[in-house]
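Sharing in case it's useful to others searching the archive later.

Someone asked me privately for the predicted structure of PTS system, mannose/fructose/sorbose family, IIB component, so I'm posting the question and my answer publicly. Question first, with the sequence:
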Amino acid sequence: MDIKLLRIDSRLVHGQVANNWAGALGAEAILAVSDGAANDELRKTLMLQTGGGKVKVHVLTVAKAARVYKNPKYAALKAVIVVETPADIVRLLDLGVEAPEVNVGGMTFKQGTKALSQAVYVSDEDVKVFQEIDSRGITQYIQQVPSSGRAGLMESLKSKGFIG
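And my answer, the predicted structure tokens:
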């Protein structure tokens, strides 16, 4: 599989992903990878309609996404993979998915999180997971849409005092 973008976005598939990212990167498919969404028929149905015919949307569990990634049948597929949390990235990596970088596009505010950027709120646990991803040599950056600037995630965590 040709992963055009591996993105963390708690909303999974929406206009920024379906229209901006997939189009700019020439993706043929968006894989919304979430155990919760894959097992929630309403969420799944809504996301499947988001592609709008331009790009095919698939909603998969983490385990199934890893199997699809490894399947030679999909070796040439140009895909955007979107997960809800940094922990899902680690699960994909542990299951053999390879990616040189991770885009952190949006992590919505929840109880126990703090603002890292306008669209990214992180918990202490998220910070630990980002450090784990960094320790594997994978570049992580914050960028909402293709036309906006990139900010290094680890540098942002340091500058905001999340890590020393």
